[in-house]
Design goal:
The protein has 15 helices and 13 strands. By secondary structure, the chain is α/β, with parallel strands linked by helices. It has 2 domains: 7-239 and 354-416, NAD(P)-binding Rossmann-like Domain (Rossmann fold); 243-350, Dihydrodipicolinate Reductase, domain 2. Strand 11 (328-336) and strand 12 form a beta hairpin. Helix 1 packs across helix 5 (95-106), helix 4 runs antiparallel to helix 5 and helix 7 packs across helix 9.
């Protein structure tokens, strides 16, 4: 695999709370003024070989990831604020952290963003690309990518979409076929959303793309096929941070113990710009789909109808400005056990949305760059660990169980490093105490 050489440009469509928290965090870590807590790429380890060999290696030593000092940044946004102004408005970072990173954040000024006022209706946009027509906007984005690479001295780039949630539309007619998508671009079809334009521009510039939002972009089969044809790795969608992360931990535990579920009620309050955008019912619908779909796949109600076939699952989000980025999620879970006796679980997760999301943005940037240098292309299912609604190959259901996703991620890194994957079977530690039956010989036809 090609090693990491030169600067890596991290491109961010959407310079909001998540993006600025990520940027400030990287800068503080580079100065040794903070620890990259929550980042698998920076703090994670991988065991190699048997448990009794005690070979545990940091991930950043196992595979050739780009070092933090080699990261440079570029952004687009529909609001005319530099990263320091955004960070102050969002009030995620402490005053001390903002002061320490102010000059760095001031240097990150977003370029005008692609915008459809019918897709993001709760933000007053004053910094948009004025070009008319999809092709003209794409040309502008591609020129921006080239210029930002040249200005930063970067040898390569990745794009992590952190834009605001767009209103939900039905699956467009051009969703499956790259040729249909090209025709829709030529016809300036209004069903093409701004985040699709960013994804398309990235692919045409040879830039790996991850969708950190619930927006419909790289999850279109047409764009996935294009990514495969152009040999570009892609991943998405919608970062798995607070309430959904907890679901992908707890639901597998309940299923593993074969405990039944009658209902799962989830509600959230948050007051940041994301909350303001999601106050639009059509934008919330985009988020609701990625949050609700998790349990259906995890619990397999078609296989366990008596346990999960009649589950009532509700999800709501409420915009509450006093909370800012300090989101609070409540879950009320009605379950039943032996002989059908009822039980309840209550969760109150008081989290910081952008603080949870920022290290995931860092990991995705570094791992996508790694995949690109390994000449991997198309859907990177091994990155499902990071998403509410992960992508998978045709005919394969997405895996939502956080622990299976975690094992898949680490095994993939082992394979990339030339090490064998682990099964965690462990029978060989016990010798003839646990005799293994010979495999059955297939019968002759």
């Amino acid at each position: 695999m090609e090693t990491s050489r030169g600067k890596l440009l991290v491109l961010l469509p959407g310079l909001g709370a998540v993006a600025t928290t990520f940027l400030a965090g990287v800068e503080l870590c580079r100065r040794s003024a903070a620890t990259p807590i929550g980042s698998m790429s920076q703090l994670g380890t991988v065991r190699l070989g048997r448990r009794d060999q005690h070979r545990v290696v940091p991930i950043h030593d196992l595979v050739p990831l780009a070092p933090l000092d080699d990261l440079v940044f570029g952004a687009w946004d529909i609001v005319h604020e530099d990263a320091a102004e955004v960070a102050e408005r969002c009030a995620v970072l402490t005053r001390e952290d903002r002061i320490q990173t102010e000059s760095f954040l001031r240097s990150i000024r977003p370029r005008p963003g692609a915008h459809d006022p019918d897709r993001v209706r709760r933000i007053k946009a004053d910094h948009v690309i004025e070009c008319r027509g999809h092709r003209a906007v794409i040309d502008r984005l591609r020129r921006d990518i080239d210029q930002m690479k040249a200005e930063s001295g970067a040898s390569r780039a990745v794009m992590i979409c952190t834009a605001s949630t767009e209103t939900l539309r039905g699956l467009p007619w051009f969703a499956d076929d790259p040729a249909d998508f090209e025709r829709a671009l030529d016809e300036d079809d209004p069903a093409i959303a701004p985040t699709m334009l960013y994804a398309y521009a990235a692919l045409r510039e040879g830039v790996p793309f991850a969708n950190a939002t619930p927006n419909r972009s790289i999850d279109l089969p047409a764009l996935q096929h294009l990514a495969t044809d152009l040999r570009i790795p892609v991943a998405g969608k919608d970062l798995k941070t607070g309430q959904t992360m907890m679901k992908t931990v707890l639901a597998p535990a309940l299923k593993a113990r074969l405990l039944g579920l009658r209902g799962w009620f989830s509600t959230n309050i948050l007051g940041n710009r994301d909350g303001e955008v999601l106050d639009d019912p059509e934008a919330f619908r985009s988020k609701e789909i990625t949050k609700i779909g998790v349990l259906d796949t995890l619990l397999q109600p078609d296989i366990y109808p008596e346990l999960y076939g009649d589950l009532d699952h509700k999800v709501t989000i409420h915009y509450y400005p006093p909370r800012g980025d300090q989101k609070e999620g409540w879950d009320a879970i009605d379950l039943f056990g032996w002989l059908g006796y009822p039980m309840q679980i209550k969760i109150d997760f008081q989290c910081r949305d952008s603080v949870l999301a920022a290290p995931l943005v860092l990991d995705l940037a570094l791992f996508l760059d790694l995949a690109h240098r390994a000449e991997w292309r198309g859907i990177q299912e091994w990155l499902s660990f990071y998403f509410k609604s992960p992508m998978a190959a045709d005919g394969v259901y997405p895996e939502h169980d956080l622990f299976i996703q975690h094992a898949k991620l680490k095994n993939t890194l082992r394979v990339l490093a030339g090490e064998p994957p682990l099964t965690h079977l462990g029978l060989d530690y016990y010798g003839d105490q646990l005799p293994i039956p010979e495999p059955a010989c297939p019968s002759k036809p």
